[in-house]
């Protein structure tokens, strides 16, 4: 078969929707998301190929796949990010498609090009969209043209200090300088006045150059205490785009999310409708297909602004699955095979409330990594609890990768019930042998602000400072 015909974008006739989308799929990832994709493939009758590094030989994603290929030593640059090795594994096993999960190769446009050249379907959007959304200044220009609300800021890249000063006067301080190739918080500088702008502008550029080999930066009005709201969308190759509601992702530390929930406690029905419809319009404007996320910042007045678009399945997709009843990974696989979305917006109902705690192998109050062997393990269960994890008793958590070891998701008919279930799930979860962030989650979900839903992206920082003061006072009192 010619390579072009096997790429989803060029598929001629849709595969009948009751057929398995593919015969065999390779999962280019590890840990819970690799397992999650394998589960979706099993339900769809798709054969699976796991790839793994030497550190992951005994991982569950390897155990539960139909075939497995070792692709290199533990460092991800030599294994999970090694494009020739991943492609070779797909060719040797005859996999028709590659699901990238999140992280690693999931937003690598070059990898998508290589897949296409090799006649392998990439389970995701086309390379051009990934490239465009990876360039934040360009993504903003495209979304602005589509009528998506924008933060006041520069029109594209700011080339010189002089231009930065003029832009900042127009925008009004405080302003934020962001790396165009950045995202997720890397390469940003907040600036309060004209005196400090030249130096901050230059360090932002230098840092962007070092981190992304691209020193392009743009500027925006800096919102002091925004909420981070993101809308889950799904699109297919026939121009259908639906949204699955929003997620509240404001509980973050150094741009790492700790807790997410859906729906957001901050949105009225009217605001929800407007933000979700805006996300659909944005995705349609770029002809988007696959699962995707439109990220917004929401200010205290209820105005929202486009921030970024993610072109992959996200860690926190599970909470959306709980409130929508849809399997996002199965939809990704169907769409990549040229099938239509299994549901229309009109058929879709969002029901109840879901909260996710990301359980990391870290010291819960110092945030230092804590790899090691799981000596005892009890996963909580009962009504409304879902755990996505590749942990098992005696598993060894390697030090080479992301420290997330489980996603604990609680669903309830409303937020109060979801929270009560999360509380009792955390109280009956046992993970011994390593430290985890579970005790911190327990503290957060018991705090009055969290219970009220009264928090912004600034909130966790202050909460952690207060916890630290409390801890130091307790030490002093014990002396
Ligand atoms: C902002 C902002 C305030 N104003 N942009 C952080 C991640 C990156 N994607 C963009 N980020 C921010 N952009 C303007 N114009 C505040 C943040 C921000 C933030 C955003 C979402 C979640 C947590 C955050 C923590 C600090 C700063």
Description:
The chain is α+β, with helices and mostly antiparallel strands and 479 residues long. It is built from 16 helices and 20 strands. It has helices at 3-6, 31-44, 60-64, 83-93, 109-117, 127-134, 136-145, 161-171, 197-212, 269-285, 317-324, 328-336, 415-427, 438-445, 448-452, 459-478, and strands at 24-27, 47-53, 67-72, 97-99, 121-122, 175-183, 186-191, 217-221, 227-235, 241-253, 256-262, 290-298, 304-310, 353-360, 372-373, 376-378, 385-389, 396-397, 404-412, 430-432. The strands form five sheets. It has an eight-stranded antiparallel β-sheet with strand order 13-12-9-10-11-14-19-17, sandwiched between helices. Helix 8 packs across helix 9. The longest helix is centred in the last third of the chain and has 20 residues, at 459-478. Ligand MV4 binds at residues 151, 176, 183-185, 220-223, 226, 228, 252, 255, 297, 307-308, 457.
């Amino acid at each position: 078969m010619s390579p072009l015909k096997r790429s989803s974008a060029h598929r001629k006739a849709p595969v009948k929707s009751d057929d398995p989308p593919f015969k065999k799929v390779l999962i280019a990832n590890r840990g819970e998301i690799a397992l999650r994709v394998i589960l979706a493939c099993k339900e769809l009758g798709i054969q699976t190929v796991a790839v793994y590094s030497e550190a992951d030989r005994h991982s569950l994603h390897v155990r539960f796949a139909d075939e497995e290929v070792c692709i290199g030593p533990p460092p991800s640059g030599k294994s999970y990010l090694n494009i020739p090795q991943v492609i070779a594994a797909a060719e040797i096993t005859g996999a028709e498609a590659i699901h990238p999960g999140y992280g690693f190769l999931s937003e690598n446009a070059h990898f998508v090009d290589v897949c296409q050249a090799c006649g392998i379907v990439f389970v995701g959007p086309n390379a051009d969209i990934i490239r465009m959304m990876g360039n934040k200044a360009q993504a903003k220009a495209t979304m602005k043209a589509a009528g998506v609300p924008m933060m006041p800021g520069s029109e594209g890249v700011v080339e010189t200090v002089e231009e930065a000063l003029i832009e900042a006067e127009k925008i009004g301080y405080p302003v934020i300088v962001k790396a165009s190739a950045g995202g997720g918080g890397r390469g940003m500088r907040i600036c309060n006045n004209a005196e400090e702008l030249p130096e901050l502008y230059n360090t932002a550029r230098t840092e962007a150059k070092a981190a992304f080999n691209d020193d392009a930066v743009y500027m925006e009005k800096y919102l002091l205490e925004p909420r981070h709201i993101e809308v889950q969308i799904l699109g297919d190759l026939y121009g259908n785009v639906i949204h699955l509601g929003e997620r509240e992702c404001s509980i973050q530390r150094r741009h790492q999310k700790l807790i997410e929930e859906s729906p957001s406690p901050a949105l009225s029905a009217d605001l929800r409708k407007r933000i979700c419809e805006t996300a659909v319009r944005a995705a349609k404007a770029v002809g988007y297909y696959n699962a995707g996320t439109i990220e917004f910042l929401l200010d205290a007045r209820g105005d929202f602004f486009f921030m970024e678009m993610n072109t992959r399945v996200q860690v926190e997709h599970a909470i959306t699955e709980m409130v929508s009843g849809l399997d996002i990974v199965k939809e990704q696989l169907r769409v990549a095979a040229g099938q239509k979305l299994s549901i229309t917006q009109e058929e879709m109902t969002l029901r109840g409330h879901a909260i996710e705690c990301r359980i990391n192998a870290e010291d819960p109050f110092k945030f230092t990594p804590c790899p090691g062997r799981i000596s005892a393990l009890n996963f909580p269960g009962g009504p409304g609890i879902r755990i996505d994890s590749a942990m098992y008793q005696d598993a060894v958590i390697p030090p080479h990768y992301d420290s997330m070891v489980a996603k604990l998701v609680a669903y309830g008919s409303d937020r109060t019930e979801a929270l009560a279930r999360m509380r009792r799930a955390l109280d009956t979860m046992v993970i011994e042998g390593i430290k985890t962030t579970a005790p911190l989650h327990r503290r957060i979900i018991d705090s009055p602000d969290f219970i009220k839903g009264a928090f912004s992206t600034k909130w966790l920082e202050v909460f952690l400072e207060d916890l630290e003061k409390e801890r130091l006072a307790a030490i002093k009192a014990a002396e």
